[in-house]
Amino acid sequence: MYKYNCLNPIAQVGLDKFDENYVKTDKVEEADAVIVRSAAMHEMEFSENLKVIARAGAGVNNIPLDKCAEKGIVVFNTPGANANGVKELVIAGMLLAARDIIGGINWVQEHEEDGDLVKMTEKKKKAFAGTELEGKTLGVIGLGAIGVLVANAATHLGMEVYGYDPYVSVDAAWKLSRNIHHAKTVDELYKESDYITIHVPALEDTIGMINKDAISLMKKDVVILNLARDLLVNSEDMVDALVSGAVKCYVTDFPTPEIAGVKGAIVIPHLGASTEESEDNCAKMAVKETIDYLENGNITHSVNYPDCDMGVKGDGARITILHHNIPNMLGQFTGLLAKANMNISLMANKSKKGYAYTMIDVDGVAAAEVVDALEKIEGVLKVRVIQ
Ligand SMILES: NC(=O)c1ccc[n+]([C@@H]2O[C@H](COP(=O)([O-])OP(=O)(O)OC[C@H]3O[C@@H](n4cnc5c(N)ncnc54)[C@H](O)[C@@H]3O)[C@@H](O)[C@H]2O)c1
Ligand SMILES: O=C(O)[C@H](O)COP(=O)(O)O
C-alpha cells in the first residue's frame, strides 16, 4: 500500500488512476509520493519515506531539486502536458495587446445603463481601435513544448516568426514549421520583432534576461509577453520602459506589486495552465509517472535523475539504487550480489550530471543483508527493493 499527498488541488481524472493499492493522506510526512503544482517546497523538510515528487506542470523552480536528489527523492514534471493551454493564452495576449479590447469592454460596462449607449458607441469606438497581427513580426525565445506551438500558430495568423533557442532539442526542431526564421542570436530577434514572447525556464542565465539592455535593442513600441516566469524580466526596467513608452505593452502571467496597475501592463493571474484540458493532462501524466516509479522503479521525465526504464517488473526482486555519479559504483553493486550468490537477470545504469540510477533484476528475493550492505556503500543515496 502506497500513500500520496497533494500539495495543490490535482485534477480528479488523474488521481483516479491510483488503484486500491494507493491511499490519499493529508500528512505529507507519511507520504511515499507528493503531487504538486506551484506550491513552494523550498522550506519543506522531507521524510525518509518520501520517494517521489511529481510536478503536475512544467516549471520546477518551486522544488529544491538538488536537496531532493541528495535525499534520494526523484522529481518528475509533465513536459508538454499544459503547452496548448499556454499557447492559446499567448495568442489571446497578443490580441489583447494589439487592440484595446479590455479598455473597450470596461467602457461598455461603465455605460451599460446609459440610454444613449448605441449612439455613444459609434462615437467612442475609435478610442479603442488597434492593429492586426497579420504582417507583424513575432520573436519566440525558447523553442520547447510551448515555444514551438506558439511559433507555428503565429505563422497561421500571417505573422513573420523568428525563433531563438541555442539548445533546441531534435524533437522540437522536427515539430517547428519551416516558415520560422532561425535567429542566430537573441539580439537579432530583439531587433526584428514587433512582438516578443519568452518561453524558457528560470535558470541562472535566463533570470533577468529581459532588462534595460535587452529592451534598448528592441523596436520602440515593442510588445513583450511573459507567460514563462516572473524572474525572467527585470520588473524595475520593465516599469521604466512602459512609463517611457519604449515598451508599448507588457503581457505577463505573473502579478507582482511592482507591475500590477502600471499603464501598458496586462497582468493575468497565472492562468496559462489553468484549463480543464491542461489540468487533466498534467494530472494524468504526473500520476502515471508516479505509479511507474513506485511499482516498477522506472523513471520517465525526471528533472533531477536520469530517465531509466526496464519495463514492467518480473517475478524476481527489482533492486533500485539512487547514487552519486562516481566511478566504481556498478562494480561494488555487482560484487556484493555475486558474493551473496544472487543471479542478475537484467540491469540498467544511467547518469545525469552528478547523479546516477541503477536498476537490477535478480532471481528470487533480495536478501536483507545485501540491501544493508548496498546502503552502506559511499555515494549511495537510496536503495529500494520492489519485491
Ligand atoms: N504560465 C503558465 O501557466 C506556464 C505553464 C507551463 C509552463 N510555463 C513556463 O513556461 C516555460 C517554458 O515551458 P515549456 O513547457 O515550453 O518548457 P520546455 O522545457 O519544453 O522548453 C524550454 C526551452 O527553453 C530553451 N532554453 C533554455 N535556455 C534558453 C536560453 N538561454 N535561450 C533560449 N532558449 C533557452 C530550452 O532549450 C527549451 O527548448 C517554463 O518556464 C515553464 O515554467 C508557464
Ligand atoms: O510551469 C507550469 O507548468 C505553470 O506555471 C503552471 O503552474 P500551475 O500548475 O501552478 O498552474
TrEMBL record:
Keywords: NAD, Oxidoreductase. The keyword Ribonucleoprotein does not apply. It catalyses: (R)-2-hydroxyglutarate + NAD(+) = 2-oxoglutarate + NADH + H(+); (2R)-3-phosphoglycerate + NAD(+) = 3-phosphooxypyruvate + NADH + H(+). It is an enzyme of class 1 (oxidoreductase). Its EC number is 1.1.1.399, 1.1.1.95. InterPro entries: ACT_dom (IPR002912), D-isomer_2_OHA_DH_cat_dom (IPR006139), D-isomer_DH_CS1 (IPR029752), D-isomer_DH_NAD-bd (IPR006140). The keyword Ribosomal protein does not apply. Residues 318-387 form the ACT domain. It comes from the Bacteria. Catalyzes the reversible oxidation of 3-phospho-D-glycerate to 3-phosphonooxypyruvate, the first step of the phosphorylated L-serine biosynthesis pathway. Also catalyzes the reversible oxidation of 2-hydroxyglutarate to 2-oxoglutarate. Belongs to the D-isomer specific 2-hydroxyacid dehydrogenase family. This is D-3-phosphoglycerate dehydrogenase. It comes from Faecalicatena faecalis.
